[in-house]
């Protein structure tokens, strides 16, 4: 879903008679039919406010001639009654009126309808009055008197103002949808493990603290990052994602911090980096563990004082950005192996959030299955309700889910598309789901008639449990220790003592 940014208003220039008769194309042609896919703009309802009947009727005739619906008002009181009683797309109001002035009327309209564009009309044009109109919230202004030469300019300016208002309203709706989508209660699951994560997210969302999100691939780290952003005071600003593992090292610095023209081959123009684009908002650095040591130093500086230099520039840029980072790697191991800076780790790890794997919250699987099934029924089957048998659901719940929630979503999509209609049965599941719960090692041994070496068997059994925990967590020692109910240091000692490795 793309958020549409409203266009900037025309440049701040006082429109002289010559400019009105010969308008500059870039000021007034942005929303003509030729620029709108060949279709005429939808005609709109416009309110004209002027105490002088001559100009009120003149504007009404001009606007009706091009197909707009027009209402009129003689003063601010009548105008406010119209604004509050019927939907409008634009207000044109005179500046000088008895009682409440046009500028004050614009302010009152903006208080109740911030997306409703207003154009002020004045017979006393000056640079100062035009600036006063824009400060009050007007989209632009027109000068009296009107004659035949002004008609096309007025029509174009009106169309541009209406389109500007529609874009602002659309942007506000899309922002509201985003906020709704990333509310805490919109994240599917009721397990204790997930609730603990969301409790932390709720507490830290509206702060500027740096957050480090860890968890296996597919657990929803970006979803949590977006929940942090869209439930914070930065929600109306940009949320910018950078996948540090997907961009080559030689390009990542320019991607993050921008570059100036001539900084390197093919740098033919200035380019803003993601930190500049996100100024006032949030930067989400996914797969931070893949960032090169070189860039780690520069990122450390951004975290310390919110400044950086674009590639090829000596000019320091200051930004106000919240940083959220995520990784599926064990950064403690990366630090010991000198692949990740310890000082950067402590800067990132102000608020640690570890996302549980799907295996650690199996009670959420039925809820997620139903959620994805409902979504796929809407998108893929055009209303035909495909259901899931209890036996098939049991098979899904018993799976180990190495790909986590992403794997589950992909499976449901595949099942819905291939089934087409009716109920999904066990036979429709991939073979791995029809073999019952997986086991990585055989169970506890039976005691043979001749007896056994107890210490040796216990040692093997202990090693087996540790390997299972490590394999289930993709060798993330923090999560493996939690699965086994051990301290991390105890687990590491046992791994070293038993000489366990991923190859076993």
Architecture blueprint of SSEs:
Blueprint: H1 17-21, H2 25-28, E1 45-49, H3 53-65, E2 69-73, H4 76-85, E3 90-94, H5 102-112, E4 118-122, H6 127-136, E5 140-143, H7 151-181, H8 192-204, E6 211-214, H9 221-230, E7 239-243, H10 249-257, H11 274-277, E8 282-286, H12 293-305, E9 307-308, E10 317-318, E11 322-327, H13 331-336, H14 342-348, E12 351-354, H15 365-380, E13 387-388, H16 390-398, H17 404-419, E14 423-424, H18 454-472, H19 477-484, H20 488-498
Parallel strand pairs: 1-2, 1-3, 3-4, 4-5, 6-11, 6-12, 7-8, 8-11, 13-14
Antiparallel strand pairs: 9-10
Can you tell me the overall shape? Answer: elongated
Give the full name of the CATH homologous superfamily of the largest domain. P-loop containing nucleotide triphosphate hydrolases
Mean pLDDT, as a whole number? 81
Neighbour order of strands in the largest sheet: 2-1-3-4-5
Number of strands: 14
Query: What level of helicity do the residues show?
Result: 40-55%
What is the total number of structural domains? 4
Largest sheet: 5 strands, parallel
CATH architecture of the largest domain: 3-Layer(aba) Sandwich
| CATH fold type of the largest domain | Rossmann fold
Structural category is: alpha/beta
Strand proportion: 5-15%
CA-based gyration radius = 31 Å
What is the C-level CATH assignment of the largest domain? Alpha Beta
């Amino acid at each position: 879903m793309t958020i549409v940014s409203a266009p900037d208003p025309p440049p701040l220039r006082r429109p002289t008679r010559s400019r009105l008769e010969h308008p500059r194309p870039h000021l007034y042609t942005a929303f003509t039919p030729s620029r709108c896919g060949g279709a005429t703009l939808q005609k709109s309802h416009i309110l004209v406010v002027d105490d002088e009947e001559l100009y009120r009727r003149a504007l009404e005739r001009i606007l009706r001639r091009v197909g707009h619906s027009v209402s009129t008002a003689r003063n601010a009181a009548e105008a406010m009654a119209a604004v509050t009683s019927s939907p409008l797309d634009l207000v044109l109001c005179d500046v000088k009126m008895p009682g409440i002035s046009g500028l004050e009327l614009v302010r009152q309209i903006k208080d109740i309808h911030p997306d409703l564009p207003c154009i002020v009309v004045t017979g006393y044009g000056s640079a100062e009055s035009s600036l006063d109109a824009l400060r009050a919230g007007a989209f632009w202004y027109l000068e009296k008197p009107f004659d035949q030469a002004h008609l096309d300019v007025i029509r174009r300016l009106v169309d541009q103002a209406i389109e500007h208002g529609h874009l602002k309203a659309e942007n506000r709706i899309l922002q509201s949808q985003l906020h709704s989508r990333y509310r805490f209660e919109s994240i599917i699951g009721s397990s204790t493990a997930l609730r603990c994560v969301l409790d932390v997210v709720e507490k830290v969302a509206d702060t500027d603290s740096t957050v480090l999100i860890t968890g296996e691939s597919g657990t929803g780290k970006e979803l949590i990052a977006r929940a942090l952003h869209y439930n914070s005071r930065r929600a109306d600003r940009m949320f910018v994602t950078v996948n540090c593992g997907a961009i080559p090292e030689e390009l990542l610095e320019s991607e993050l911090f921008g570059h100036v023209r001539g900084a390197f081959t093919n740098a033919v123009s200035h380019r803003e980096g993601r930190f500049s684009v996100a100024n006032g908002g949030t930067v989400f650095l996914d797969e931070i563990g893949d960032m090169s040591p070189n860039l780690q130093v520069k990122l450390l500086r951004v975290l310390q004082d919110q400044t950086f230099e674009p590639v090829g520039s000596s000019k320091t840029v200051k930004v106000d950005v919240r940083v959220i980072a995520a990784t599926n790697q064990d950064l403690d191991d990366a630090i010991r192996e000198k692949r990740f800076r310890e000082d950067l780790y402590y800067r990132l790890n102000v608020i640690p959030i570890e996302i549980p794997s799907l295996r650690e919250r199996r009670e959420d699987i039925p809820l997620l299955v139903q959620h994805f099934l409902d979504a796929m029924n809407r998108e893929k089957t055009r209303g035909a309700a495909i259901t899931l048998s209890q036996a098939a659901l049991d098979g899904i719940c018993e799976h180990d889910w190495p790909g986590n929630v992403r794997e589950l979503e992909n499976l449901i999509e595949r099942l819905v598309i291939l089934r087409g209609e009716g109920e999904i049965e066990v036979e429709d599941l991939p073979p791995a789901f029809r073999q019952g719960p997986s086991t990585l090692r055989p169970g506890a041994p039976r005691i043979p008639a001749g007896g056994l070496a107890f210490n040796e068997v216990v040692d093997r059994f202990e090693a087996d449990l540790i390997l299972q925990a490590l394999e289930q967590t993709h060798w993330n020692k923090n999560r493996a220790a939690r699965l086994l109910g051990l301290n991390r240091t105890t687990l590491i000692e046992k791994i070293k003592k038993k000489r366990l490795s991923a190859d076993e």
